[in-house]
Structure of Lipase:
Amino acid sequence: MKTLKRYQYERYAVLCRLAYPRVFKQTRYGFDPNGQRIVKNAKGKTLMRVLWSKDKEEVIVVIKGSHSPSDWFLNLAMWHRSCLSTLGLNYSIHAGFHYLLHQESVPAHRQDKLGDPVYTRLESILSPLIHSGKRISITGHSSGGAIGLVLADYLELKYPNVIKRVVTFGQPAVGGWRFKKNYQLARRTFRICCDIDMVTFLPPIPIMYWHTGKMLWLYNERIYENTPTILRLGRSIFSWLIRPFSYHLMSKYIRDKDFFDER
């Protein structure tokens, strides 16, 4: 299993946060002036940003999570839909995430074709970059992380060894046991969970949904690796219940010393 270095974590986290504003100046973060393409959803809203530089091997795909009432409504579509006939992947995934991948992508560039679904639009942007020798890293927050896993698997199937890594933040589970078994990139996937983020336990159907990849849990100022879900859930609930009392500890007072001016 590969590791995720601190500077890599910070870079992906910053890009995920900055993916939400309407305007993103990629040159401020080391990408070329022409090193950004946008993938829009069916409503014409930005869903993904593809970022690259000519002098760097890595292309980064940043995917937004749920950011509208209709997006959150899709999270309730917890039945499974197959990816075999369209993506060539031998498993089924959450129906809401399936829709996010297969919805029509409104053109955002002169090279974009009308009627292309999201996954085709992304591939059309990435294909010339892949053929130029670049590799792809995919990162996303919440449902963006979930569909990022499926997109990475799809690209890896068509372009072997093209995926460098997948890093997700606050990602819900994507599919069932067949998804967990057949997903090709578990050793290159890092799933970041923060403290008591309840979205990372969704959908709340244990046998029907499974996670994959290496889980890194940021909890109590430490990083825990691959903590079993039931143990993490128990600790999270316990932490939530005792949180009001934790602010009584002297460690909290010491940590907040920087609030005071130097004398």
Remarks:
- The two ends are 49 Å apart (CA to CA).
- The first strand starts at residue 36 and ends at 40.
- The chain has a mean pLDDT of 90.
